[in-house]
Amino acid sequence: MAYLRKERFPTKTYTKMKMKKIGPCKIKRKFSANAYEIELLEGIGISPIFNVTDLYSFREAKTKL
User: Fold this and answer.
1) Is 8 helix (H, G, I), strand (E, B) or coil?
2) Domain interval for residue 27
């Protein structure tokens, strides 16, 4: 999953109702120890390159039966 900071969005397009997190996302490639390119949805309008501090592992919620 990826955390979407306010600074990632173009000027004056961010509102507090925008997504804060997106995922699960697949990692396409690794640029360095701190930068990864992830697969984003079409039309999201932000760069697909994220710092490792904004990425975290996706954990499915366990459901009780």
Assistant:
1) helix
2) 2-54
The partner residues of 21 in beta bridges, in order of sequence, read 3
Q: Is 7 helix (H, G, I), strand (E, B) or coil?
A: helix
- pLDDT 10s digits, 22-64: 778 889 999 999 999 989 888 778 888 888 888 888 777 777 7
Task: Please check whether residue 24 lies inside any domain of the structure.
Answer: yes
61 lies in some domain: no
How is the beta sheet containing 35-38 ordered, strand by strand? Answer: 27-30, 35-38, 49-51
Number of domains, the chain: 1
